[in-house]
Design a protein that fits this description.
Keywords: Coiled coil. This is P-type conjugative transfer protein TrbJ. By secondary structure, this protein is mostly helical. The chain contains 6 helices and 2 strands, in the order αββααααα. It folds into 2 domains: 78 residues; 151 residues, no CATH class. The N and C termini lie far apart (118 Å).
Length: 261
């Protein structure tokens, strides 16, 4: 910030006035232009005296105007320096840490990650059409894998929820600090920077909300996918049971030996 010593400026200007007044009044102290010497005395010229006084007054007025102009310029420079002063506070590091924490929770998604290729592959293998030729052991293993995906998705959603809730306290602290910085801003630049950081805080909160909705949506989608695949698997197993040759066939049963006793 540029600071101009106004008191020194005013003192210098007053000194200039003191030095200029004798110069302006020197014509009055000198012999008048129309002074007449006769019989040993000086004849006083009122018009010349009045003109000298008027000249001195005008000179003093010009000096005062110059002093006022210099004071205005000094005030303007001080205000410009205040408006250009940067905000001595930054919440960027804290906001970036909050975003990174949420991203880490999303990247730790179990079984089926937030990746389009991964999701397509998993659904083709675990949630696609069930083959009639699949063994019972394979059907049970696939059903268990789908159940694990669903439970993992629910756990991931709860972890993201916990992370977002953990960011609330940090966001509250940052919001309080930024509002205080905005209210105590000494210039336009500081107020603007505080406002920009408040917008960044809102963006971080929105990103947390998007992450939370994504995690919840993922868990709900896994539940519905498991439910739909379980219904299809039940249909296949029922059809296999009712197919001729594969269902229960009645036959002779022998009890208590061969029946001759």
């Amino acid at each position: 910030m540029i600071r101009i010593p106004v008191r020194r400026l005013v003192g210098t200007s007053v000194l200039a006035v003191v030095l200029a007044v004798p110069v302006a009044l020197s014509p009055m102290l000198a012999s008048p232009a129309h002074a007449q010497f006769g019989f040993g005395r000086i004849v006083f010229d009122p018009s010349n005296y009045a003109e000298n006084v008027l000249t001195a007054a005008r000179t003093l007025e010009q000096i005062n105007n110059q002093i006022q102009s210099l004071q205005n310029e000094a005030t303007m420079l001080i205000n410009q320096a205040r408006n250009l002063a940067s905000l001595p506070y930054s919440s960027l590091q804290q906001l970036q840490q909050n975003v990174q924490r949420t991203q880490q929770l999303l990247s730790q998604a179990q079984n089926i990650a937030f990746d389009v290729q991964n999701i397509n592959q998993a659904f083709q293998q675990k949630y696609g059409s069930i083959s009639l030729s699949a063994t019972d052991t394979q059907l049970v293993a696939d059903a268990r894998s789908r159940w694990q995906n669903t439970v993992g998705g629910l756990q991931d959603a709860m972890r993201v929820q916990a992370g977002v809730v953990g960011n609330i306290d940090a966001n509250r602290t940052e919001m309080s600090a930024l509002v205080g910085q905005s209210q105590n801003a000494s210039g336009a630049l500081q107020a603007t920077q505080a406002g920009n950081q408040l917008l960044a805080l809102q963006s971080q909160q929105l990103s947390d909300l998007v992450a939370l909705m994504s995690a919840n949506g993922r868990s709900e989608a896994l539940i519905e996918a498991e439910r739909a695949t379980a219904a299809e698997q039940g249909r296949i197993q029922r059809e296999r049971f009712l197919t001729p040759g594969s269902a229960y066939q009645p036959g002779n049963a022998r009890m208590f030996g061969n029946g001759n006793n």
